[in-house]
Request: fold
Amino acid sequence: MNTQSKIKLLFVGDIIGKPGRYVASRVIPQLIKERELDFVIANGENAAGGFGLTKNIVGKLHSYGIDCITTGNHVWDRKEFIKEIEECSGVLRPANYPPGAPGRGYCIIEKNGKKLGVVNLQGRVFMDPIDCPFRVGRDIVEKLREEVENIVIDFHAEATAEKIAFFHFMDGKVAAIFGTHTHVPTADEAILPGGTGVITDVGMTGPFDSVIGMKKEIAIERIIKQLPRKFEPAKKDLRFQGVYVEIAEGKTEYIERIEIRVKKE
Ligand SMILES: [Fe+2]
Ligand SMILES: [Fe+2]
Reply:
């Protein structure tokens, strides 16, 4: 295997509404150029006004250079997306959703002669009770490995221990696993003994003067008064958070957390 087969990949933390899209539109094209990226994957479950996705927003995300969009528990927040997802190429919902759920949970993306398998899974601890992500993930990866050498997973989950157990369960079976969903990055990026690059949470791309992307005042009032106020994305302290990996022969060779602060013009 020569160095041509090395894949330079950027994984982007949950993009939050319009502020997140602004940051993504500024930072991703720049990183594609600077780092000569082969592929960009982003979690887009909060890209439409902070909740869900639409076909229109999927088009915008692709225009920034994102090849594949993963999601999670917010995937159906915009009801129209239940139908639209079938018309959106390069969009995944968690693969361990019940049989009959629209859309798909894994795919192979191809560009410039390079191929990458992408799987989206959702955890079950402090989340909706869906199929076992460990068993579903293992079966999908076994099947995908017949077609593609390099596979990465977005494991969308709340509990750190569930994510870390999953990393060890899959070590050596996939090139990298990126934790998403908490919107708070963890400083534990590592390459496990089997060669799988991991991070418990990639973080988020959006406004950080917020409660995980949403206006602070509303989040606090919901807790203090227990009133059903609607969340709204915040606006200030825009940042990009993501992880850059170099992968080859089914393993991660290099992993790096990236954070870039963006000034709104
Ligand atoms: Fe999210
Ligand atoms: Fe989520």
About this structure: Residues 14, 45-46, 72, 74, 181, 183 surround fe (ii) ion (ligand 1) (CB under 6 Å).
